[in-house]
Amino acid sequence: MSDTRRRVKVYTLNEDRQWDDRGTGHVSCTYVERLKGMSLLVRAESDGSLLLESKINPNTAYQKQQDTLIVWSEAENYDLALSFQEKAGCDEIWEKICQVQGKDPSVEVTQDLIESEEEHIEEMPETSPLIDLPTCELNKLEEIADLVTSVLSSPIRREKLALALENEGYIKKLLQLFQVCENLENTEGLHHLYEIIRGILFLNKATLFEVMFSDECIMDVVGCLEYDPSLAQPKRHREFLTKTAKFKEVIPITDSELRQKIHQTYRVQYIQDIILPTPSVFEENFLSTLTSFIFFNKVEIVSMLQEDEKFLSEVFAQLTDEATDDDKRCELVNFFKEFCAFSQTLQPQNRDAFFKTLAKLGILPALEIVMGMDDLQVRSAATDIFSYLVEFSPSMVREFVMQEAQQSDDDILLINVVIEQMICDTDPELGGAVQLMGLLRTLIDPENMLATANKTEKSEFLNFFYNHCMHVLTAPLLANTSEDKCEKDNYQTAQLLALILELLTFCVEHHTYHIKNYIMNKDLLRRVLVLMNSKHTFLALCALRFMRRIIGLKDEFYNRYITKGNLFEPVINALLDNGTRYNLLNSAVIELFEFIRVEDIKSLIAHIVENFYNALESIEYVQTFKGLKTKYEQEKDRQNQKLNSVPSILRSNRFRRDARALEEDEEMWFNEDEEEEGEAVVPPVEKSKQEDDFPDSYEKFMETKKAKESEDKENLPKRTSAGGFKFTFSHSASAANGANGANSKSVAAQTSPASSNGSSSKNATLTTAVTASKGSLVGLVDYPDDEDDDEEEETSPRKRPRLGS
């Protein structure tokens, strides 16, 4: 049905006493066989689906409010409302409801809301006259006040009193008496009027609200509510509303109805939030109609402003005009902030239209200019508007910044402006920075990114972010850790670095290879671990959490980076410096090592035990470090058994690390391996030579290994005079940048074959032998793609039987 008379929005009241929109459709009143009675049906205008099917129950109380609303309760805590586009449609459906219930359509409510047996016996018949109101005179005020407060407990009597007040124009007479009392300074009368007006508000009747909140009455209503008997002195609410609260028109509003609505909404909201006491549990439903009144007013204001495109265009033009002075711009931004706050009352499809209108008019480029301004108030309001936009549609914001990147420098990109605002927040507690960090996290969260048939937002946006924005985000971190110590360690810097680390930790969890490449290229983890020396424990814990997330991924690529760069050293130093204190830092470090033990991450276990066990073996209040040693030894035994069970031809090549035996045979091994891939580089060497060589070369290998082990013992950490351990490993630049330094020869070569966690076999797959002078040890260069062979080789010692054939 397309006629607008029957067009309605369906609302339900949620637990917070706010109306939730359920959709727009067309209402009809028809007999439904299944429900055995006349029912209200609402079919969605978009797809014809059933939004509402509600039988008109003879005992349900239906209320008609503001000429275009019908409200009722389906169950104890389930309130429904139909908001009609036109009054005629509302009247039509109201007549049908009254017809089913046998009521006169002129009533505003069809039933008593909570009707007990006793009340029913006591109440006069329906046809009896309304409540008789005392004449509106000064000497009757006490009587009127008693009457109004006495009816609040009975829904029927409340209804009858409301009708009586409405029919006799009684409220206006009461307000005239208020002016008389105030002129005479009749305090007792003013106290009675406070009780009367408060009681009338609690009748919860929209028709009475329309009278009370009209331009001619509202200030007198506020005046009555100033004279609370419980206060020694009356409040000065009218003075605030007329003199202190200023109505600012950023652009003159020509529509008088819109102006009146804005004034009325502000004042009614003031009455609800400031003047009326917070309702008790028993009274909270008394003001539900007042909440609805404000809600529907706000919807109307936003709709009227949104439809006036000339007005909005003018606001945008002034906001982005360089000639606009700062005060004016501040007002314009505050207008938008309030406008966006009001828009939250709109139903979803209207809110979509609202934000699309703003986007079309250029809200994002405007925000970009405003967020870079010096004025703190303006920046704060702009941040609030930005948060509404990000919350509404992160994709819309992402699309804008990616298009912008094609025609602007990195410095002025919206996301970089946001990051700079976060970094430059002057508040010692970084309140604004925390809000901006939350928005950034929403923008870079892959969970809310769309993947369509023709493009993937995730890969496009993350490529953009890591190319154009990541360097801005990490700049303070890299600048503060450049000399392997914290340059600045004050509280505000620590807070900021903690926020940046929180975002980077989020990236490690959600961005996989983008962040992995970034960490490797910038040697980021080493820089982060410098912060383990901070005097602020929360920052040291943030750095540790970053490392813990990386290790938690159990990615061999990361593990090699950590072992080659010797990145456990700062963590173990922090544990030893912490001494015997049993605190969060102590627990977090131990949990990190416990995770490595439980998950049995072999490469890390071997590295920790071989390099740091002497320093850690004295820690006996947990079994973590002894457990690591046990795991290490078990793995060593396993590798030795594998070594013995493998045919000699394999053993001679696979585990040889002595340069004297490497040259010909190792090359043959790699060339043979490549031949299987379809490309022989050098013809294979004869098999018999390998077998003859084996005993001699293996003995040489074992001698070299023992000599190396004795050297390692000399290099173990020494206890300092203070009783702790300090490590003084020397690293070449290439070793420090583990994964980057492809030519790193001095790292990991000392590890014995038995403890290499299968890395020897792995290295043989996609690695190049580095030829060295005779008598020296050789390291193999790792490449990132060889992770996949790990598990396979641990389980299968007979990986390459082809060489024995």
Automatic annotation (TrEMBL):
Domain Serine/threonine-protein phosphatase 4 regulatory subunit 3-like central: 143-634
Listed InterPro entries: ARM-like, ARM-type_fold, EVH1_PP4R3, P4R3-like_central_dom, PH-like_dom_sf, PP4R3-like
PANTHER family for this protein: ATP SYNTHASE GAMMA-RELATED (PTHR23318), SERINE_THREONINE-PROTEIN PHOSPHATASE 4 REGULATORY SUBUNIT 3B (PTHR23318:SF18)
Protein name stated in the entry: Serine/threonine-protein phosphatase 4 regulatory subunit 3B
Regions of compositional bias (Acidic residues) in chain numbering: 667-679, 783-794
Disordered: annotated segments: 667-805
Comp. bias intervals (Low complexity): 730-761
Basic and acidic residues bias locations: 686-717
Family: Belongs to the SMEK family.
Lineage summary: Eukaryota, Metazoa, Chordata, Craniata, Vertebrata
GO molecular function, one term: protein phosphatase activator activity
GO BP, sorted A to Z: DNA damage response
Top-level division of the source organism's lineage: Eukaryota
PP4R3 EVH1-like domain residues: 5-101
Biased composition (Polar residues): 762-774
Species this protein is from: Calidris pygmaea (Spoon-billed sandpiper)
GO cellular component terms given for this protein: nucleoplasm; protein phosphatase 4 complex
